[in-house]
Each structure stands twice: as structure tokens, then as C-alpha cells.
Design goal:
about 700 residues; alpha+beta; Rossmann fold; 3 domains; eight-stranded mixed sheet; six-stranded antiparallel sheet; 19 helices; 28 strands; globular
Length: about 700
């Protein structure tokens, strides 16, 4: 049974240096469609190479070389966004990807397929010719400087709660800061609703130059998490209590517009007050702006019966309970009328594209469009950009939201023109994939090109797989059922769901209900009105399925197809120590044993989901082989703890010397990685020979880690 490189060593420092920047900006192919909790591709390329190469090989030299491992087959039964599959194809492997979620299947398929870029460009240009003017005219306003027609970049909206005492509409502002550009803050007047600018740090008291009203711009009507205070009479209202009594979504009003003026930009007037902001402006909403939106709303109401949009109810689940608590019961309610009209126009165009491959490519980009064009899109005043609905990996209703220009103008994020550019860049990456080579700062990044991503997919078990005609088997099904898989595999490499961290099916329903409108007549797994949930491998309060038993079933199923010298390598992280203990039991019950573990950075700390109290930024790479009967070394608890402490201190020192930040719950990945590895080597006994329970040993190690932080 040959030993592989990853069983002995892994270049944590070098891969971390590549993975950390990638966590904030993924490779182009992984930016085509939105998926949750993506991992760094450089980490998985290294895992794949380490699982194939012999111990004498140098992984980092091989990392930048071309490879053609056509005699190796890898399976990922939790393929998600397809990182294992894409990196496997790039190395020339035969790949089997399985996921119960149709959106995961679709995203991976569209990433993997090699297409004719010229043909894709033709369809992008055709879409632009037919839709650009129609959709852009939905997002027009008047420039406050030259009074000519200008483009809306973002329209800012605020939800309102009627005061039960004086009947005033209470806007749910946390503060009155609209945007910050070049150290100039645009402030909304709390009285007259006009926008004025303030240079420098914003004080606790300002005076509106239009109506002379004095107020604190940093203190809004929203008080605490669920309470608002009426500025007219001082009455406080519990927002959730109001929603329970009134079974409708809170009304919203537009209060500000951020725009771009092509006319001022074309004149390139050096004296223009917009020159310093690159011809962008922030202004209050006029009656004309409100009337214009109302006309579009009427247009939607008149034409909605002929439009293409999801009309299904939102299923009640753990993740979607928040939506129901805020009275969102239908998917269409997560969009305003202008968004629905623009999105429907684009989806109808996609539906009419006759070539299935290019239709699906545009549909993959449409998934990204949905992420940034809904009433859950938050705005960063300092960053002057929007964050998508799943920036936190959950449904989070907002008091204020930014309505994006769906088609897009010169500035903006998540627009259709930006999504199409990402699609094109992503498919160009298929032909010329690359990794970055670390360089000195003055030289910047250097791309190292190698490999080619050319997936030739089939979607069902096939006796001829793999062959020159098909190197990719993608299945949308329960990964526990592999009895019909005709071939054996060399590697099981995956990034399984991390217990209860992300509720993939309930979140991806947001995309699924739109995508199925085009795909339901082509693929049977898009026939249902929602994604499968009962057999999904996650912990969810509303499902009877045992997550750990499910993992065991999938691991055991793959084990029957894994060659005798095959490796199981997977990544995992969690901030609950009990989850790690149960994971150790899963590995044992599945018939595997841990031979090596490595802690590597995995999450960008600046993203919203990392701002939770128990966020963890490290993944643990767990390398396993089929369990064999061998004598464990008997050791005392004192010696075990001594070995553990030394290993732990050594890893912490290594990360510090590499300037890799280890915070809070990151220590758990390091701690339990060492324990998983040591557990397979040692049996801890008392002086009288009594074997100590695992919980007692692990608790002692955990106490040391907790006290040493």
C-alpha cells in the first residue's frame, strides 16, 4: 500500500500564503455563480496533488506544473460549488461529483463545461442589443448639477412602521448617514428629507442647511434590535409584535438616490462639483422620482401575468422562519416591482436562447444577478457598494436596503452587465487557468498558467466511464446510494456540510425557484417546487435525519468503491467542541482511521458571516485510510498531554512566524486536528492498565487550549 505525500507533509505556510488572498477574491470560474461557503481552490489543488504524489515529490514545484493524471479517479459526494471537481479536471483527473441539491449540480456543470467563447460573446451581445435600453430606462433620474438625464446606481429604501399612538409613519433608520465619499458624508435630513454634505468627522449634532432642523445624524428611529421610537410623539413600538398583529410585509419608501451623470462625465468639466466624485452624486428623492417608480410599478401590475417569475409560497423551515416572522410568505415579495420587471425580462430572454449550453451559461450568471438584486441587499456607506442577500449565509431582513440598477451603469456591483463580464472571465479561465506565484510587493502578483478545465459530463451511471468521451460524471442524487456505481475510485476528496453551519437547501431555494422555470422541462431534478431537504446531510431542527448517521452512511458507501490503497481526505470546521467529538466517532464508525491532519486558513475575516460570535476562520484537512488492525502504543495520560501540548505550541508558533492570525475559535481546528491524529496512534491508560475514556482525555487537552489563549 504506497504512502502518499499528504500522509507525511503538507506545505501549510506556502498554501496559506496563496489561500488567504483568494478567500477575498476567488478565481474567475468560481465567481460565475453565487454559492455558499466556498473554499480556496489553491488549498484543494494542493490536497489533490498531495494525495497523488509520492512522499519524495516536492508539492510546491508540482503545484505550478502541468499534469495529466488520467489514470486517477476522484469522487466528491458533497460537491457543492464544485471546487474539488474543477481542480481535479485541471489536473487531468476523472471526476465524479454528487450532490442532492440541484443548484449545486447546475453550478458545477456550468463551471466545468468548455465552451466556444466566440459563441458566448455572440449571445451576450445579442442580449445587450435587445435588453440594455429597455432595462436601463427603468433606472433614470435627473442629475442635480446639470439637470440632464442620469443613471441610478442605487436607490435607497427604508421600511416604515406606523405609530400606534399618532399614526405617523416611523422610518426604521439606524442613522441618517447615506454615503461617504472622499471624506465627505452625505446626510439625510431627519425632518425635510433633503440630502446635504458634511466634510470631516460627523458630530452628534448637525443643522440641515435647507430647513435648519437640528438633529443627531448618528441616531435614528431604530432603537436596539427590534424596537423603534416615533420622533413625533416618542412612542416606542416592538417591530416583531407589530408584524405578528399585522400580517403583511412592512411598507418601504425611497429616500435617496446615488447616481452617475453621463452628461457631466462627457463634458469632463474640470470645474464641475461632480469631478471629485468621478461624476457620481447622492441626492434626495423628488416627486418626479417617486412618480417614475409608481409608473413602473403600475407597468408591472398590468403585465405580471405575462412575465416569468416564481409565484410559489416560501416553505417554512429553520432558515426561512425569519422570512415568515417578517411576513414574507411568497418568493416574489423578496423583490420590488422594478426588480421583478427587470429580472423577468432577462429570464424570458434566457428562456428563448435555442442552444441549451449557452442558455445555461447565461442562467448561471443570472444566479449571481439574483444575489445582488432583491430587497435584502445591504449597502456599505463607506465602501459605496452593495452586499448580496447571502453575505451572512442566512436570510436577514433589513430596515434599509439598496436597490441596485439591474442592468448597470459605469459604477455599481452585481449588475447584469457585471455578471456577464464575470461569466466571460470565468469561461476564459477554463481555457487558461492559473495560480498566483508569491512575489515581492514591488513586483505584484504573477500568474502561473497550467492545465485546462474541460469537463465532458454525463449525468448517470455509465459502464464506459471514464473514457475520452466523458471524464466527468455529475449526479444530482442522494450520495448514500452508490450501489450502481460501476467503477472503483482512487480518491475520496470533499468539503462536506459542517453540521449546522449553513442550511444549503433552504437558502438555495431562493435561486432554485427562478432557475427551475427554465430547466424543469429538461432535467427531472428541477421538477419539484423546492430543493430536496429530508435526505440533506445537515443538522436541522425540523428534520428527523441524524446528520452524523448520514455522514457514516455516505462515508461507508464511498468506502465500498474506494480502492484498497485509496485515501479519504476532507475538510471540516466548527466552533462547537462536541461536534468535533462526534466527527471522530463518524470516522471510526465508517471504517476509517486518521493518519494526518493539517490546519489551514479558510475564511476571509472581513466577510459578514465571520462577524458572528463563534466564527472560525480555519479548516482542518483530515487525511484518512481504511482502518486496519494494528497495535496502538500504550501511553500514560501525562505523556499524552505532554505530546499534545508540544504539538499545539509548535503549530501556534509556526502560524505566528508566518504572520497568520489565529483567533478565538480557530484554536479548535488546531486542537482537534492534533487529537484526531494522536487518537489513532495512542491508547491512554492508567498505571493499572485501565483504558481512559476519550472524553476525559479530550477535555483535558481542550482545557489546556482554552487556558493558553
Amino acid at each position: 500500500m504506497p504512502t502518499r505525500l499528504i500522509e507525511q507533509t503538507f506545505p501549510i505556510r506556502e498554501i496559506s500564503e496563496l489561500a488567504i488572498p483568494e478567500r477575498s477574491s476567488y478565481k474567475p470560474i468560481y465567481q460565475i455563480s453565487k454559492w455558499f461557503a466556498r473554499r480556496a481552490s489553491s488549498t484543494f489543488r494542493a490536497i489533490l496533488l498531495g494525495s497523488i504524489l509520492p512522499p519524495t515529490a516536492d508539492l510546491m514545484t508540482n503545484f505550478y506544473n502541468d499534469h495529466e493524471f488520467s489514470d486517477v479517479t476522484v469522487i466528491d459526494p458533497f460537491m457543492g460549488g464544485g471546487t474539488t471537481i474543477i481542480e481535479g479536471l485541471r489536473l487531468g483527473l476523472n471526476c465524479i461529483g454528487i450532490d442532492i441539491n440541484p443548484i449545486a449540480w447546475f453550478i458545477t456543470k456550468t463551471e466545468a463545461e468548455l465552451i466556444d467563447l466566440g459563441e458566448l460573446k455572440k449571445w451576450i451581445m445579442d442580449c445587450e442589443n435587445k435588453l440594455k435600453d429597455q432595462i436601463k430606462k427603468l433606472y433614470l433620474t435627473t442629475c442635480p448639477v446639470c439637470n440632464y438625464q442620469a443613471d441610478i446606481i442605487y436607490a435607497h429604501w427604508v421600511k416604515m412602521v406606523p405609530c400606534e399612538v399618532c399614526n405617523s409613519q416611523v422610518p426604521l433608520f439606524r442613522n441618517f448617514v447615506v454615503a461617504v465619499k472622499n471624506k465627505i458624508t452625505s446626510i439625510l435630513c431627519a425632518s425635510c428629507g433633503s440630502i446635504f454634505e458634511y466634510s470631516g468627522s460627523v458630530p452628534n449634532l448637525v443643522s440641515c442647511p435647507h430647513c435648519l432642523f437640528k438633529f443627531n445624524p448618528l441616531l435614528g428611529n431604530r432603537v436596539g434590535r427590534n424596537t423603534c421610537r416615533c420622533s413625533s410623539c416618542g412612542n416606542t413600538t416592538n417591530i416583531l409584535d407589530f408584524l405578528k398583529k399585522n400580517h403583511h410585509v412592512l411598507k418601504s419608501k425611497m429616500y435617496a438616490i446615488e447616481g452617475f451623470c453621463p452628461n457631466c462625465a462627457d463634458d469632463d468639466n474640470q470645474e464641475s462639483p461632480l469631478k471629485i466624485t468621478r461624476y457620481k452624486f447622492v441626492k434626495g428623492v423628488s416627486e418626479t422620482d417617486i412618480d417614475f417608480f409608481n409608473q413602473i410599478e403600475d407597468q408591472w401590475k398590468r403585465s405580471s401575468a405575462k412575465q416569468l417569475y416564481p409565484e410559489e409560497s416560501i416553505p417554512l423551515g429553520v432558515a426561512t422562519k425569519t422570512l415568515h416572522n417578517h411576513n414574507y410568505t411568497r418568493w416574489e415579495e423578496l423583490f420590488n416591482s422594478r426588480q421583478l420587471l427587470a429580472l423577468s425580462m432577462i429570464l424570458q430572454y434566457i428562456q428563448k436562447v435555442p442552444d441549451a449550453i449557452y442558455q445555461e451559461m447565461l442562467l448561471a450568471a443570472f444566479i449571481n444577478l439574483l444575489n445582488h438584486n432583491n430587497v435584502f441587499t445591504r449597502y456599505s456607506p463607506k465602501g459605496q457598494k452593495v452586499e448580496g442577500i447571502f453575505a451572512r449565509h442566512d436570510f436577514h431582513p433589513l430596515s434599509t436596503f439598496a436597490e441596485n440598477n439591474v442592468w448597470g451603469t459605469k459604477y455599481g456591483r452585481g449588475t447584469w452587465q457585471k455578471c456577464l463580464k464575470r461569466l466571460l472571465k470565468g469561461k476564459e479561465y477554463n481555457i487558461h487557468p492559473y495560480n498566483y506565484k508569491p512575489q515581492k510587493k514591488k513586483h505584484g502578483k504573477q500568474k502561473s498558467f497550467s492545465g485546462k478545465i474541460e469537463g465532458k459530463p454525463i449525468s448517470e451511471f455509465c459502464e464506459t466511464f471514464p473514457s475520452t468521451e466523458n471524464n466527468l460524471l455529475l449526479m444530482c442524487k442522494d450520495s448514500e446510494d452508490l450501489k450502481d456505481l460501476p467503477m472503483s475510485v482512487d480518491l475520496f476528496i470533499s468539503d462536506p456540510p459542517y453540521a449546522d453551519n449553513v442550511n444549503y437547501s433552504e437558502l438555495s431555494d431562493f435561486f432554485y425557484v427562478w432557475v427551475r422555470l427554465v430547466l424543469k422541462d429538461r432535467y427531472q431534478w428541477f421538477l419539484a417546487k423546492e430543493t430536496p431537504k429530508e435526505a440533506e446531510a445537515i443538522i436541522s431542527q425540523d428534520r428527523p435525519l441524524n446528520y452524523y448517521d448520514k455522514l457514516v452512511g455516505i462515508f461507508q458507501g464511498v468506502k465500498t468503491k474506494l480502492k484498497s490503497d485509496g485515501l479519504l481526505v476532507f475538510t471540516f470546521h466548527h466552533s462547537d467542541k462536541h461536534t468535533w467529538v462526534k466527527l471522530a466517532d463518524v470516522i471510526l464508525r465508517s471504517g476509517f482511521q486518521v493518519v494526518k491532519t493539517y490546519s489551514v486558513p479558510s475564511e476571509a475575516r472581513n466577510v459578514l458571516n465571520m462577524q458572528k460570535k463563534k466564527a472560525i476562520a480555519f479548516d482542518l484537512i483530515i487525511v484518512c485510510r481504511s482502518k486496519v488492525q494494528k497495535q496502538q502504543q500504550t501511553i500514560s495520560l501525562e505523556k499524552f498531554l505532554n505530546h499534545f501540548e508540544n504539538s499545539y505550541k509548535k503549530q501556534i508558533t509556526m502560524f505566528r512566524e508566518t504572520n497568520i492570525e489565529v483567533k478565538d475559535y480557530d484554536h479548535l481546528a488546531i486542537c482537534f486536528g492534533i487529537l484526531l491524529e494522536m487518537d489513532s496512534r495512542y491508547q491512554v491508560t492508567t498505571p493499572s492498565g485501565v483504558v481512559l475514556a476519550q472524553n476525559e482525555i479530550w477535555d483535558s487537552c481542550y482545557e489546556f487550549v482554552s487556558s493558553s489563549q
